[in-house]
Design goal:
With 271 residues, the chain is an alpha/beta fold. Helix content is 39%, strand content 22%.
Length: 271
């Protein structure tokens, strides 16, 4: 049994964060483990405003030491880390244990918030996590911040951002264009330092997409754990998330979740 690890925030609704990661890991036939870095809550009395309570970095360290005491996972991902000190702790532990197949999801924003959260962490992610990333999975907003370009509005912008992010040390970069880039196709751009691959799927016009970004990175993580190449893992992840969004359902008046079992329900094998 392949072990996979998520170092991420908790979403009590179960749609995103480490809950989405663990569901995805199991769909791919891997054994998921988690280190909680923060707890995200949403206030229904205040128009679903988000609050983030971070876990003390020393406790994050103890969680990781517990996990790594059983040996290295086959692959791991980071999500919302929530604190610059936590980013440093994660880097120190990864340097010590030297795991393979590191997926960095540079979470700088939450759906449903009025602006960017934790954007002050961008420089620390840039200097401490991107250099050890086998692949990083920013969305358009995160890629614009990490690259320093700002708003990415054209395919050329995305390609330039991918090149810059690759120069920070990430071996592979996939920038999630989603429906922000094109109103007909969801276009993701994959870069390996030499060439680009453009991955597209039809836009699904729905609000039931909570957790799609976390799930995308988690599916890549599980694919790498199962021995797939990076590009193959990304392609399968895109198909997995596409079907999960198609089968999504409302959670409450404010958001709807994707369904992590959709790919399996449609007869696909993920191991």
């Amino acid at each position: 049994m392949k072990k996979t690890l998520t170092i991420a925030g908790s979403d009590s609704t179960g749609g995103a964060g480490l809950q989405a990661d663990l569901k995805t890991f199991q769909e791919f036939g891997t054994f998921g483990m988690s280190a909680i870095t923060s707890i995200v809550t949403m206030d229904s009395a205040r128009n679903w405003s988000h609050e983030i309570d971070t876990i003390e970095p020393a406790i994050v360290k103890k969680q990781l030491e517990t996990i790594f005491s059983a040996g290295n996972p086959a692959a791991l991902k980071t999500g919302m880390l929530g604190d610059i000190r936590t980013i440093s702790v994660v880097r120190d532990l990864l340097d010590h244990y030297q795991p393979k197949n590191i997926v960095i999801d540079p979470v700088l924003a939450c759906k449903g918030t009025a602006g960017i959260l934790l954007s002050e962490n961008a420089e620390t992610i840039r200097t401490k996590l991107l250099p050890i990333a086998d692949i990083t999975t920013p969305n358009l907003i995160e890629a614009g911040i990490l690259s320093g370009i700002g708003d990415l509005t054209t395919l050329n912008d995305i390609e330039q951002a991918a090149k810059i992010i690759h120069e920070f040390g990430a071996k592979h970069v996939v920038i999630k264009g989603g429906r922000r880039f094109d109103d007909r196709e969801s276009i993701d751009v994959f870069y390996d330092g030499k060439s680009f691959d453009y991955l597209s799927s039809p836009i699904i016009h729905t609000d039931n997409n909570h957790g799609a970004g976390c799930t995308f990175a988690a599916a890549i993580t599980a694919g790498l754990a199962n021995g797939h190449t990076t590009l193959a893992a990304v392609k399968t992840s895109k198909a997995f998330v596409h079907q999960a969004i198609m089968a999504g359902a409302p959670f409450n008046a404010y958001l709807g979740h994707i369904w992590h079992g959709a790919y399996r329900d449609n007869g696909n094998r993920l191991t």
